[in-house]
Amino acid sequence: MIKPFKTLLFLLSVFIVFLGISFFFPSGKKNIAKITLYVPSTDSLLGAITSKPAMAEQPEANKKPPIMLNAEVDSNKTVLPTPENGEFKKSMMKTDTLTRNTSLAYSTNSTATDKIVPIEFTTEALGSFFAALKNGEAGSSQVRVLHFGDSQVEGDRISDYLRSVLQEKYGGYGPGILPAYPQNYQPYGIRQSASKGWNYSNLLQPNEMVRKYGILGGLSETNDKDATEYIRFKKNARDARNALFDRIRVFYGKNDGPCMLQLLKDGEVADTEILQQAQTLAQHSFTISPDAKTVELQLVNTGHILIYGLSLESERGIYVDNIPLRGSSGEIFTGFDHELARQLFGMLNVKLVILQFGLNVAPGNLTSYDYYEERLYKQVMAIKSFKPDVSVLIIGISDMLRRVDGRLETYPSIEKIRDAQRSAAFRSGAAFWDCYRAMGGKNSMLTWVNSNPPLGSMDYAHFTYRGARVIAGKLTKSLLEAFDRYSFPESSAIPTEAIARPDSTQGG
Predict the structure, then answer these.
(1) How far is CA 115 from CA 105, 214, 247, 363, 431, in A?
(2) Domains parsed from the chain with CATH numbers
(3) Is pLDDT of 286 > 80?
């Protein structure tokens, strides 16, 4: 048996050996023949990196925003119009000059700045969405915002805050689109469960059908003709807007025959409908009292049927539908069945699509991201082909850190990816919001992680839930400022007031 003091002596000897090597090779590496040996620095061995993480670089109060693209660019590459590069023309792009120094109520000194980071290229890019708000469409029907993103938006993070603010202003109740089969992260106020007979395919799985038809993030399907399958929603925060929905809409198709769909309220059958065979896409909606504690959909003798998604909603209002795609770079829209996407965008009355991707592209650390710019451009153009009047907003990549010689620093690819996203937005007629700049720029994630309470996760890539709300607040403030400053045609109507809270006495 090895005694503890011998183990201690061995570890101490190893430490002294490494300390000696690091003393003679302070650069941290030694080339021997064609082999490079990396050794820890004396600072890291002695714990002298820093007792406290370095604060993120803060933008100076009167410093001009940096030019997003390098001055030396390929002659075939788009150069964005900016005041600094001398190619700025008012006829090409209306300048966003949102400079109001307004603090967010939940901001902390740890976040870089409370100054609003403007949404760029709003003149044409967001006109359709802003017109829908200005003309009061949400007061008479629905206005939908589809928020696609990677793991940064999972669990309804960011989307939930934006939805809450817009619904308070323009009306609407419920979280909007959800898959039929429950996911690990669920929206606040709702606990979803389902029977075991469902097969769920995520959009990122190597499945041809879901790649073509999973435009709402995935597909749920059943195959047993003799089975009864259910989807259940239990409200666990009844006063939350998410739990006050009074309508359930089901988007389905490719069923091999009629099947019975029942709506149960608190365990009692409230309505029944026969779903007829649909080759591609159909929908059915149930109205239900918002005071129901538990709502359940039952499919009886289903056979094969695809459920593209469900919507927990009200008849009118605005919806920000959260569609997270963990591991995705956002290159999905060119693969969708065009006719199905066109029909679904029409059924939902989609007015704005938000794209929030980039984290899964960063680790590559390439010299150029021209390829990514081109692919992102094609995704936006595909979205616009689904519904020509739809607005698109690209949220730029957030800060993400890696460890180099014992220190944490921003991936060198982050700003290149941000610039590629911005250029793709300009080329495709989309709007752009610089999340990286809103965080504080280079190494800002270190500050967010070390905030009290933490706003970033210890992986130095993702926001905590609290941090997601902070960044969502910054985004929402920028969006509303852009709307307030947008120049509408004189014929635009005055927006109607938000619709009233649903009456819990209305029929089920």
Answers:
(1) 13, 38, 39, 30, 19
(2) 15-49 (no CATH), 81-172+319-508 (3.40.50.1110), 173-315 (2.60.120.260)
(3) yes
